[in-house]
Please model this.
Amino acid sequence: MLMIKRYAFILPAVLGLWSASQPVQAQCTGAVAGTSLVNNGLWNAPTVPPTMTGYLTTTTLALTNTATVSSSAGLTIGTIVSGPNFPPGTTITGIAGTTITLSNNAIGLGTNVLHGYTVPGWANNYPPNNILAPGNTGATTAACSVCPSAYSVNICANNYAQVYMCAGNIYTVTVCNSTTFAIGTSLTITNTPMNTSYAYDAGSCGGGLSQITFVPTITQAYRIRLFQSPCVANAAQCGLFQISCNPPPPAPTNDEPAGAISLGSPAPVVCSMITGTTAWATQSASIPSTCSPGTCGSTSGLFSGFDVWFSVGVPATGNLSVILSEISAGPTTFAVYTSAMVEVACSCANFVSLSGLVGGSTAYIRVWPRSGSVNSGSFELCAYEPIPPPNDNPCGAVALPVGLSCNLTVFSTESATSLQAGMTTAPASPSCGTPVAGGDVWFSAVMPASGVMTITSQAGTLTDMAMAVYTLTAGNICAPGTLTEAFCNDTYGASTMPAQQVNGAPGTTYYIRMWNKTAAFGTASICAVQNMPPPNDDPCGAIALPVNLGCTFGAPFSTQFATPTGNTAPGAVSIPNPAGCPGTGSPYTSDVWFTAVVPASGQLVLDTDDGQLTNAAMAVYTAGGTTCPNLSLTLIGGHAP
Model:
């Protein structure tokens, strides 16, 4: 009979893997040799609005038919004037510098007030490529009025079009309707110096052809360049190029504080997410001020408007927590305001917990995309009264059963607070992990008769926690009292979730403190297990293995709580140490035993299969006819995979 000893010298670990998508870099910036502007005379007849309206600051005098404008460029006799102090149907009858004569007398005085000037529709087949009068740079211009519109031209893969685009309008640029391209194409939208790329596409609409839907955030001239994919000038490949403009849809109903969507009044005691979006929102008057520089606040330049608003009733406690979670939106930020619109917090980390607010008042939450996208995706938001978990303090510690197997207890650190008043710990901060930043939760376990147990945790949404184990050394567990640290652990092998073996007197109550290593909150699980060695911990308890004609693995075995077998063991007289056996690797820390009977052929193959135990070794002994309780073993070989 052979005795087989299987032992481990590296602890197994369960690792969590994560991946983060990386943004695709826009392409085709800078000059590309052989490219040229498409000839304006080649554009087909467009679809454009019959009139265009621009805006100029105008000064009027009551009961006179003259006014002065900031610029008369682009104005003509017959231009329609609209705005304060002019009757409907008023037109320009004369122009002298910046003084205009009108068909009607002004009905009131106005100094530098914006007025609309309606001129005939865009008369060219090609789209506007510069600011059109009436209007000044930075103000609403007539170029922005050439929308909705549609233009088309036959263009080659070495051409570009220069188009004046206006922030908020929706532009679609495509060659997907062409049937003459025999190559893959790419489209790039840049500024006119071509050193900044705003949008890029290569082959998104099938057949290798390209299309971009673009919503600019800057009103300026843009250059749209067509290439053989990715950025190759090819004058031999030509086809139909189309560009259309559509005005933005209406802003969302909660575009301003007056239309804020309620999250509850008063706030609920649990987070109940609602879905929102900043798509097509406009900027409110004020600018967030409390976000940290260099992160997501106005001082870093990442606030670009497009905000929406929510409201919530502040609970009587004055405590309020807010959580935001992106769905399809990019990085999104929110700020919290009082009912007087005083900003009290700004979160770049999608969570904030506030106290000291006025109970019964209304708080407002302002949400905006950090990316500056006018058509950002969706997000979820909730506001609630933070209620600490029942085991927030040692007085409410959850009692863990100490059984022979792990019965996990799921817990949450949401809204957990620091140690209750009147309780102290020695040392003041745990000796492992990081200082308790986001609150802690407490458990208790009573030492079994064996005098040894293991406290084990498993990851939930929290994956990197720490654990400290205490005994009550003075006072009362519900304060005042003192807890003295006995053990502390923040890892288990390669795992970032802690486990701790606890040795002590039977009947002693131990208090287990769990906290996340950052201020983030979430869920995890914990259990307490009595350390009972497996039945085959020693040779005289070895499990008999059947000897089959082929390798058939039986039920898995475990080395949990196994002890290292010394030179002797219960029922054994002599057991050679395998540490020096060639091929068995590092010294063993625990082992379990099996037996197998050598068949008549004299040949026996021993094989193992990994489970959670992934790095183990094996030693093989013969018994020489001895049996328990006088077992003497002879080492004949070993193997480490």
User: Anything to note?
Assistant: The radius of gyration is 38 Å. The chain is about 0% helix and 40% strand.
